Amino acid sequence: AAARNLLVDPAAVSRTIKNLEDELGILLFSRSTRVSKLTSEGKIFYRDCQQILQRLDGVAQRFRNDGNALRGEIRIGLAPTIPRRMVTAALPPFQRQYPEIELQLLSITDPVEIANGNIDLLLRARAFRKRGGAHKDLSGLVIRKLIQSRIMVCASPAYLKRAGTPLTPNDLARHACIALVTLVRDVQNEWPFSKAGAVHKVKFLPKLLVQGEALREVALAGCGIIRLLACHVQDELRSGDLVQILSDWDCGSSPAIVALYRNAKPTRPRVSAFVQHLVQAFRPYNVETR
Q1: Which of 30, 34, 101, 27 is nearest to 63 (CA)?
Q2: Helix axes 269-281, 84-97, angle to 10 degrees
Q3: Distance CA 189, CA 228 (A)
Q4: Cβ neighbours of 137 (radius 10 Å)
Q5: DSSP-derived secondary structure letter, 134
Q6: Between 169 and which of 126, 193, 218, 275 could a Cys-Cys bridge form, CB atoms 3.0 to 4.6 Å apart?
Q7: Is the pTM here over 0.85, yes or no?
Q8: Bridging pattern class, strands 187-188 and 226-229
């Protein structure tokens, strides 16, 4: 459960616990095939660490409340799938709170840039392979979930007037469906749908493949039907420039938008402060808050 919450490999959490037990020379958990629970030593260790972390949070909060305590630059890499307007809308409150921090927004197409030290922070959608399962992230990085938005299918009123509105996933076969090309070069040309336990997968041969925010723009231009995170198109849905279709179907698993940064010890406070600011600023986009 901890691994799922942190978006990391469960085996990595198990190894960390085992290494800690070896270092301390005690067992923190008693384990069986059915359950794992804290030992008496583990309960004491947990209690003491919790008190230390509470004190640390108090110290950190005092520094956060002093805008002049943090200064320097943060080089922020934006993957193609990150909606720029969401990020830029979150910047003014952070700039007011931390006027001594310089922010650099950089377009990034290769995750290795963060490992090379060219950026401090990478914002991207969690990548999934066509056949399921997340792509392995670079080692030595902290992964923090920012948004878990829902997925929807939509198109412009002009396109729907010209081509008709699909009423079932099977109707998509006669429509112009536009494929997203991910940061890791996967072509998303198979769309899953489910309703009342029934699952349908629609695979299509795209005539148009795009990356990043161009997916929204080609839909606005009337090129066809797109499938993407709802947080990318909230403004267009409110204005009527895009229309949601197949709204009575579940459109598949939603990849989380995450922040990745180097596991520096200690983590640079300004990077941590910016990530925490984004978590709060993006909270309204999370599907679980709706």
Answers
A1: 101
A2: 120
A3: 12
A4: 17
A5: B
A6: 193
A7: no
A8: unpaired
